Amino acid sequence: MSKDIVLRVVDIWKRFGQVEALKGVSLDVYRGELLVLLGPSGSGKSTLLRIIAGLEYPTSGKIYIDGEDITDLPPYKRDTSMIFQHLALFPHMTVYDNVAYGLKIRGIPKDEIDRRVDEVLELVRIRHLKDRKVTQLSGGQQQRVAIARSLILHPKILLLDEPLGALDLKLRKELHIELRRIHQEVGNTWIFVTHDQEEALTLADRIGVMNDGKLIQIGDKWDVYEQPKTRFVAEFIGETNIFECRVVEVYGDRVYAEWRGLKLGVKTDREVKPGESMYLSVRPEYIGLSKDKPSNEGYNIFHGMITDEVFRGSYVMYSIKLDNGEMVKVTVLSKDAEYDPGDEIYLYWRVDKGVPLKE
Amino acid sequence: MVKYDRLIRLVLSGYTIFTIAFFIYLPIAVIYIYSVNDTPYFIPEWRGFTLEWFMAAFRRRDLINSLYNSVLIAIFVTAVSMAIAIPPSFYIVRSRGRIKNIFLLYMMIPFVIPWIIIGISSYIFYWYIGMPKSLLTAALSHIVYSIPLVVTLLAPRLYTMDPDIENASMDLGADPIQTFRYIVFPQIFPAMLSAAVITFAWSFDNFIISYYTLGDELTWPVWVFSILGKVPRIMPVINAVSVIIITVSSIALYIVVKKGLVRLI
To answer: Residue B56 in contact with residue B261, Cβ under 8 Å?
Structure first.
């Protein structure tokens, strides 16, 4: 993918009364990518999206599209289009009238409107519903109308504000696949806001994690998952174990830390000094289990007892009490899950799979 | 409880029917009967069918004129108060928490002030600013007090409208005026029509404010009040006009409800 920047968000602050919704967010969005902004409710992600759309005005900061400052442009003069959380379809209109709306406002001739409506309804596969009233459609069909209504205008940037939140899980998963297909066919830039980490990992090229009005980490979704920078990111995306430990020995990038009486090996690029405290995140799926003591080089190996198992379909999550009394979560694919609560067990993970966190 | 469900329902339905029939429609039925009873007096006796009272009504220029004035004022009041009340309705409904409640409270206050006080204070106000009383002053007072009415009638409908629907329209390229015309107006039209019907009826019906703010030209209720007991054989004429008013407004209401323009619930 070319690193051509289409949208530049520079130091956006937004205050609502006493509440600071955004505290200095800066962000570059690349042309053609699908960026997911992920964060809990109240993290400011929807506000940021609405500021990009022009529906909210920032307290300070600038927004540029293709280098042009659009901070002061009203929404109807911006080359962005938004898919709203509750879709905001026009309830008194048919599918055709909803989708044609933007073109009619622009005074496009009727036969061209008809052609483009057919084209975009074909893209989202609801051409047969053209003459229905939108209130007569199912949730998933309404979704598609909302997408068509925006895409027909060929916006440079499509903004999606948790549009799948109201749908049931199965339909949501279907639409994830559809959205990726449509994104690839259309090829414009999408910014998708969600609080659902699974949705983020499924859809995104890149993920930006937001919390408390700040963009905490942004990057390729693999990097964000595997190399979280903070405890918040590690815990918000996927499951993880957090070990609070203290650095005891440093040999270049290899560090030994003490964790409740156990010695842990850690690999880090960061400069650390003995005595400093450190959080280590280890994903449950990177921890292996074995009845016999493994003798692998470069692994952390501990002994404990299984206290609980939770069957989650394709995998099983074990809770393990280590000899130092600490609990650790470990996931194992169901086909390999041959242990029971009460079993004595060894667990191990490769030293570089433990990620040291800033805080 | 289930055992008594049928009984409770039966009692409730009987009670509802009785209340509506006895308190609302029985008095109205009496008016219908006496409008065609061949006697100028309310005597419990049928003296034969006549259209005399209707003919008499059409012969009275002052009566026809008062009806004309009432309709004129009601149309004017409805149109102007709707136009004035829509923007603040939006503002109030869309404002946050406390502000909304304070505004709605101030909008409700006129409903709990006795109309006679409003009538007298209007009277004093026009005297104070030196404005001669006429149909216009009456209409202005009606407008002032129908604005809270319109806001109260429109607010619940506006409140259920997702502001993002308007945002979506602007996001798709429509400016605020186009958004009002194509998106907001069609959605609030039914609520506007109900508000208009009720405002029209309220203005047409209003006696106390009109009484204190009219000049020489009278509206229908004020004319009725001014003539009762002063002119012989006038009661059955008023009955006849009442019958026409009730019939026409019932048919009008039936049509708007039937066409789905006004939803009762």
So the answer is: no
Instruction: Indicate the helix (H) or strand (E) that contains A29.
Output: strand A19-30
Domains, chain B, in order of start with CATH, read: 61-258 (1.10.3720.10)
CB proximity A81 to B under 8 Å:
yes
What is the interface size between A and B, counted as CB pairs within 8 Å? Answer: 62
Contacts of A2 (CB under 8 A, 6+ apart): A30, A31, A32
Residue-by-residue pLDDT tens, chain A, 359 positions: 457 999 999 999 999 988 999 999 999 999 999 999 999 999 999 999 999 999 999 999 999 999 999 999 999 999 999 999 999 999 999 999 999 999 999 999 999 999 999 999 999 999 999 999 999 999 889 999 999 999 999 999 999 999 998 788 888 998 999 999 999 999 999 999 999 999 999 999 999 999 999 999 999 999 999 999 999 999 999 889 999 999 999 988 889 999 988 999 999 888 888 888 999 999 999 999 999 998 878 899 999 999 999 999 999 999 999 998 999 999 999 998 889 999 999 999 999 999 998 76
Interface list for B 177-216 with A (CB within 8 A): 178, 182-183, 186-187
The tokens 């290899």 sit on which residue?
Answer: A254
pTM: 0.80
Residue identified by tokens 């069918």 is B49
Interface residue A263 vs chain B (CB under 8 A): no
Any B CB within 8 A of A75 CB? yes
User: Under CATH, what is the fold of the domain A5-236?
Assistant: Rossmann fold (3.40.50)
- Contact flag B167-A75 (C-beta cutoff 8 Å): yes
DSSP secondary structure, B97-159, as one string: HHHHHHHHHHHHHHHHS-HHHHHHHHHHHHHHHTPPPSHHHHHHHHHHHHHHHHHHHHHHHHH
**Could you say which architecture CATH assigns to the domain A241-357?**
Beta Barrel (2.40)
Write out residues 148-167 of B within 8 Å (CB-CB) of A: 162, 164-165, 167
ipTM of the complex: 0.85
